[in-house]
Amino acid sequence: MMLSTEALIGLPLFVVGATSMGGWMIVRAESVAKSQRERMP
Predict the structure, then answer these.
(1) Which domain of life is it from (predicted)?
(2) pLDDT of residue 39
(3) Dihedral angle sign, alpha carbons of residues 25, 27, 30, 35
(4) Dihedral, CA atoms, 13, 18, 19, 23, nearest 10 degrees?
(5) C-alpha 18: how far from its chain's center?
């Protein structure tokens, strides 16, 4: 019972954390690519 409760609580937290981290990395990469594109002649 304890294991299933931990899984029900931990899995959504892990998914949200991984999603937010992945989204932050994507936004960061896009902003870097955009700044490099603007710097190009």
Answers:
(1) Bacteria
(2) 81
(3) negative
(4) 140
(5) 5
The secondary structure of residue 19, as a DSSP letter, is H
Q: What is the DSSP letter of 41?
A: -
Give, in degrees to the nearest 5, the angle at Cα 25 between 16 and 35.
150
> Among all chains, which residue has been given the structure tokens 């899995």?
11
Concatenate the DSSP letters of all residues of 21-36 into one string: HHHHHHHHHHHHHHHH
Regions of the chain with pLDDT less than 50: none
Q: Which residue has the tokens 């190009």?
A: 40
Looking at every residue in the chain, the average pLDDT score rounds to 85
Q: What is the pTM of this model?
A: 0.46
